């Protein structure tokens, strides 16, 4: 059987060339909830898209949408990961924060380990000033008070004052990673809100966004009917009569 572009991408691990997401897709993704998106992804057969663990660190910046730029950590080693490596401006961790393009979401695979931070406030501030859309990691951050004030949506599994070198070794970027046990390929679309973070495969983003927006329009109508006191039967899920009401048909 011939390989599709998507299957070739998945097998090789190479980032697939893709056109920028169109404005209608981006507008929808900035509006619809991760709950609705996971329903649409499940309808397409994808069940493992929600990153269990990462939570928004800011009380006000709780939504992020952008293409994934990936950074992978492996366990640190005492003879290599010493404090002096921070003098190296070309350290893979530093390079990732300088290389991720504006509008991207930096997704850091920290293997779910939170004893040491995956990043700190200085690097996050640099990413913000470069136009980054947000940061997601299944690890921890240090300088938590700084993240709470930073105007950058950041999702992490907690806080740890210990520098990343105590547990992590940055090895590469822009390769497929696992973040909170969810596969993330460079260019996939990351969406985060109050419920958490999900990964939308890039080739599904437009159709998922379109159908999610349509789903939420119907659900908003249904919610209003339920709030009026209507029973679930015939209303949720909506039967043909309720759908006719939604469409304004007689």
TrEMBL record:
It catalyses: oxaloacetate + H(+) = pyruvate + CO2; 4-hydroxy-4-methyl-2-oxoglutarate = 2 pyruvate. Its cofactor is Mg(2+); a divalent metal cation. GO terms for molecular function: 4-hydroxy-4-methyl-2-oxoglutarate aldolase activity; metal ion binding; oxaloacetate decarboxylase activity. Gene3D superfamilies: Ribonuclease E inhibitor RraA/RraA-like. CDD domains: RraA_family (cd16841). Mg(2+) binds at residue 143. InterPro entries: RraA/RraA-like, RraA/RraA-like_sf. It comes from the Bacteria. The keyword Metal-binding applies. Substrate binds at residues 120-123, 142. The keyword Metal-binding applies. Its EC number is 4.1.1.112, 4.1.3.17. Keywords: Magnesium, Metal-binding. Belongs to the class II aldolase/RraA-like family. Homotrimer. Catalyzes the aldol cleavage of 4-hydroxy-4-methyl-2-oxoglutarate (HMG) into 2 molecules of pyruvate. Also contains a secondary oxaloacetate (OAA) decarboxylase activity due to the common pyruvate enolate transition state formed following C-C bond cleavage in the retro-aldol and decarboxylation reactions. This is Putative 4-hydroxy-4-methyl-2-oxoglutarate aldolase. It comes from Murinocardiopsis flavida.
């Amino acid at each position: 059987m011939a390989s599709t572009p998507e299957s070739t991408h998945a097998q090789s691990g190479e980032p697939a060339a893709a056109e920028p997401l169109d404005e209608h897709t981006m507008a929808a993704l900035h509006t619809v909830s991760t709950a609705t998106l996971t329903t649409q992804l499940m309808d397409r057969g994808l069940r493992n898209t929600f990153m269990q663990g990462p939570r928004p660190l800011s009380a006000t910046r709780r939504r992020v949408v952008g293409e994934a730029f990936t950074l992978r950590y492996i366990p640190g080693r005492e003879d290599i990961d010493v404090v002096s490596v921070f003098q190296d401006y070309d350290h893979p961790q530093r390079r990732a924060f300088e290389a991720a393009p504006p509008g991207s979401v930096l997704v850091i695979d920290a293997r779910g380990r939170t004893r040491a931070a995956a990043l700190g406030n200085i690097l996050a501030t640099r990413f913000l000033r470069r136009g980054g859309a947000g940061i997601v990691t299944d690890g921890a951050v240090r300088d938590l008070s700084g993240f709470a004030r930073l105007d950058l949506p950041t999702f992490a599994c907690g806080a740890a004052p210990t520098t990343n070198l105590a547990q992590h070794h940055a090895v590469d970027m822009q390769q497929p990673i696992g973040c909170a046990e969810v596969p993330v390929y460079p260019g996939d679309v990351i969406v985060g809100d109050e419920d958490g973070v999900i990964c939308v495969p890039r080739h599904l983003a437009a159709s998922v966004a379109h159908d999610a927006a349509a789903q939420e329009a119907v659900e908003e109508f249904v919610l209003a009917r339920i709030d009026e006191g209507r029973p679930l039967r015939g209303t949720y899920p909506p039967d043909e009569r309720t759908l006719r009401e939604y469409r304004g048909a007689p």
